Each structure stands twice: as C-alpha cells, then as structure tokens.
Fold these 2 entries.
Entry 1:
Amino acid sequence: MDMKSLTIGRLAKQAGVNLETVRFYERRGLLPKPPRTPSGYRLFPEDAARRLRFIRRAQELGFSLTEIGELLSLRVSRRTTSADIRTRAEAKIADIEAKIRSLESIKKTLRKLTRVCDGCAPVAECPILESLDREDA
Amino acid sequence: MDMKSLTIGRLAKQAGVNLETVRFYERRGLLPKPPRTPSGYRLFPEDAARRLRFIRRAQELGFSLTEIGELLSLRVSRRTTSADIRTRAEAKIADIEAKIRSLESIKKTLRKLTRVCDGCAPVAECPILESLDREDA
DNA sequence: CTTGACCCCGTACTGTAGTCCGGGGTTTAG
DNA sequence: CTAAACCCCGGACTACAGTACGGGGTCAAG
C-alpha cells in the first residue's frame, strides 16, 4: 500500500465523519471514485480528508450537497470555458455575500441585545425580529 | 375579525411559505400559539410574517429549527436573568462570527478563481480546497 | 492458521423538515 | 341558500442526509 493513501476507515477518522458517510459521498459524486487494491479496498488520496472537511463546513453554512457539488466542480479544465466558470463563480460569490449580510444583521441584533443586558433593561418582545427586515433577495 | 390579524392562509402567502409549514412551526413552538375565533380559526398577529421570514433566512444560514428556536427565545424577561441571556447571546455571536469567517474564506478562494479565469490559465486541481484549511473551530 | 480488526456490498432504517390527504365545519360572494 | 374558498385536525407520505445491518472477504499479529 502506498504511504500516501488512506483506507476508508482511516480517512473517515481523520476527517471526523462516519465511514458510511464517506461511501455515501462517493456514491453522490462528492468524492471522486478512488482507486482500489486488487482485493477491492478503496485507497483514497490524502487530500480526500480536506475535501470531506470542506463538505462538512459548507453544510454548516447552509449549502445542500447538490450546491456543494457545484462548488467543488468549479475549476477551469478542458471541458469548461473560463468564461463559464467565471460566471458561475461570481454567482456563488453573490450567494455568499448575501449570507454574510444576513449573518451580520443577526449579529448586530444580538450585539444590541447584550448591550441591553448590560443596562439591565428588561425586553418584552423578541428583539431578534428587528433584524432581517425587508431585504429579501 | 380584527383588521390587524391574519388567517393562516394569508399569513402563509405573505411570508411565502406553505400553509402546512405554519402549522408545523406552531407545533414545534417556533410560532406562539395564536388566539382563535369562536369557530376555531387562528388569528395571527401581523408580525408573525416577520418571524416566519426570519426562520427561513436563518435556515438558509445553516441553523436548525432547534437553534432557531434558541435564537428566537433570546430575550430578557422575568424568568431569565440578564446575565444568562448575555452569555447565550455571546455564544451565538461567536457561532455567527465563525460562519462569517468560513464564508469569507470560501469567497476569497472563489475570487482567486475568477482572477485565474481572467488570466486564462487552466487550473487542473480543485481550487476550492485551498480554502478552509485547518481552522476547525 | 486462526482471530480480531478492517473492508466489501446492497438494503433497510433513522431523524429532520416539511407536505399532502381527506373528511369535516365556516365564511363569503352571488 | 348554495357554491367556492377557506379553515380545522390527525395521520400518512416525501425528500434529504445520513446511519445501521448483516453476510461475506481480507489482512496482520500471535
């Protein structure tokens, strides 16, 4: 076995995910199909762990597995033109910026809330609702 | 019927969600139980629509319904002390800041990708993986 | 050369977040 | 007064994202 390869179990442990999840992502096409040993064992390249961690993070940010697949496939190659990639990347950037704005808005409200706490003034209504008003993309 | 109240159908339409979703959120405790007409119809206060929109946005940002419930319940009242709320709000702020950092990281990578496109240099490997390395909270 | 840890595969099960159904009562416009 | 449009409820169904199961092969240590 190549020193630089990981069995599925090691990979799963390194990335902190369930072994079955690795198989599941492979079926979904989120991980490229790894080469196999003669007996059929998968041998993942080392950087599969990064990829797995990326997937998990992107999920925490509200991307579906389908969207994550789109993100992961953004690259320039022979079958995609630069212009095409550029357009798609810019669309993703816009999505991300919208998410960041929403998060900033919630954060600002929470900040205000902690200041109210400092002032010891009781707040009856739910102050979170002050955020995110009428800027629906 | 009060001018300021919404039937479930109107509310759902205004907020852009399915009517059943409104009932579902009510069951889950994400919407306070509204008063009813004598015949049993729900009459939601107008701001229930804001609340629904908040829920949807927070979901897009990767919060589960349980977490959203926690966000919505962050307020100072008689049964919660200011200090308690403050602590919880600060924890949420930290969560949010981590999400923002992750998003900025992905964005930066995508930006780099668009620059590569401009330069017309083909990129073989997946450049997205350059982001998000080893800063696991 | 066996035993335990690991891997294979397909299939079935689980949790979350809705969404639909259908049999019934209510409200409103004609 | 009736038909369309709306609402009630409980329960069944769906999609997505895993997670578990179980019967079998493989590999490394003793």
Entry 2:
Amino acid sequence: MKREKEIFEKFLSDQHLRDTRQREMILEAFLQREEHVSAEDLYGLLKKKGPAIGQATVYRVMKLLVEAGLVREVDFGDGVRRYEHCYNHPHHDHLVCRGCGKTVEVVDPVIEEMQKKVAESHDFELTDHEMYLYGFCADCRNKSAK
Amino acid sequence: MKREKEIFEKFLSDQHLRDTRQREMILEAFLQREEHVSAEDLYGLLKKKGPAIGQATVYRVMKLLVEAGLVREVDFGDGVRRYEHCYNHPHHDHLVCRGCGKTVEVVDPVIEEMQKKVAESHDFELTDHEMYLYGFCADCRNKSAK
DNA sequence: AAATATATTGAGAATCAATATCAATATATG
DNA sequence: CATATATTGATATTGATTCTCAATATATTT
C-alpha cells in the first residue's frame, strides 16, 4: 500500500475519524495527478469513474488531507484554491508564467534563510510562507516577439 | 492638489477616459486610508459620506487605479482582494500574523536579488512577485502562553 | 447481534466576492 | 447643437466554497 494511504489512515484513526470509501477514493484520485489540482478538478475526475462523490465531500476531504500533512494549498491568484503533493515533495515555491500559466517549482536556500531572519527581526515566529514569482517564460517571450 | 490625483487625471486623459466625480471620490477615499482596504470596505465608507456610489463602480475604479500604478493588489489568502498604496510606497512584502491578522511591511534586498537570479536561471523574465511570510507576532505568542 | 451513539455523506440551498448586463445619464467632440 | 462615446448604478449572474440537514454508514455498548 502506498505510504500516503497509511499516513492518512493513521491520521484518521488518531483523530477518531473514520476511514471511508469516499476518503480513500479522493486521496487516490489526488495521488494519481502530478500537477496542481482544484477540488473541482478532482470532483470532475471522480464523477467520470464511478458512482459520484458529492462535491462538498471533496472539499471537506481536501481539508483533511491538508491537516494530515499530505497536501499543500497553493494560490496563484485566480480565485481557485489548488492543491499539490506534500509527501516526498519537499517545500518549494513557484515561478508562474503570466503568459501560459506554466509553473516551475523552485527553492533557494539563501531566500529561505533570509526569510527567517526578516521574521526574527520583527519578532515574528515564522510558521510558513508563500512566494510566487511571476513573469514570462522563454516560450511565451518568443511567441509574442513574432 | 495631491500628486496622486494629478497622476490619475493624466492617466485618464492619456487613455481617453473621463475624469468623473465617482472616480475622484473613490481615489480620495482610498488615499485617506492608510491600511489595506477591499473594494467592499471603500464602498461602505463612501456610502456613509454621501450619495451612494454603486459598488460595481468601486470595483471598476480600483482596477483603473491599479493600471495607473497608484495601487497594488494584495492577497492574504482569505478570499478578499485588498489594495495598498503604491505611490511613494516602494515595493515591499508582508509579514502576516496568523493570530491577529496584523501585517508588517518588509523588504530584504538579498531576497529581491535572489528572486531575480532564480527567475533567470529558469529563463523567466520576472515581472513581479508576491511573498507572504506567515507566523505569530510577539503579542499573540504571549497571549497564548498564558 | 441488537441497540445506541456518533460520524459521514450528498443534494441542494446559501454565501460572498467579483463580474456582466443594460438602460439611463453624463461627457466630449465635430 | 447634434452625435458619438463613455460612465454609471441597479440588478442579475457567475463561480468557488461552505452550510444545512435528513438519510446513511460506522463504531461502541449492552
């Protein structure tokens, strides 16, 4: 069994929550996707496969997965909450193309280090952060140059 | 007259747009506030003062102010778009307290520099970025410790 | 296993920010 | 002054997300 499933099951039992068919199916569907997905995306995918799962349930379960530490929320500013893998995907930030929407995962140790210092200097205890670098990728620059 | 008003008027005339009472009043209301405000906040403030301005107009004008370079959008992830001063407020990022919601403006030249490098290394042409550092301020830490 | 308590689900309604529609009004230009 | 164009505001609409609540499923206790 996938490690993520085990973690989720442990999380559920620790929280005295139940391990249901829907919860398993939603995790399953999420794990199969490599890219960023919204709750709506997953709802659509699941609907195709079999007996529909209510969309409210999808929204609810995604929250649980975030709590369980398996999923991270990302917000590219278009009004839709998306989710990305967290387990075995160490923390990273995103480079986002304003042309085609493509995203690239990036991490820079110097930035991470300085973020801590900045927070400390204002007597904040840093818990997490979000950083989005917006710009135009090479492809989009070439297209618009034509 | 405030410099911002002049800039907005120039922007409007350059774009062949009209300088209306509503546009002036919305800019005025925005300038009077120092903190981050949403379109809805401004709509509420304006309603108190005099003959109501439609909320659609407030949303529309805020977009114009962003285009005019007088206003910057910020998104603290709570589903509401807020605006902050841009003129005479050089670029900065935000430290946000997860306890009380307080925000602190921060800038770090090293981070800014590294962001450019990171973008370059993926052949992206950086246009802008957002960075939010989340944590707990000293006050909130003290309160919860009690 | 039956009974009881508790958690979960899903359909649909509700919410909330933001946007679109469109007729009435205001402003600019020939 | 007449015509073209832009703006406004009331209202409806959208789209994502959350809430409600009765029906169902799962656990726990006798």
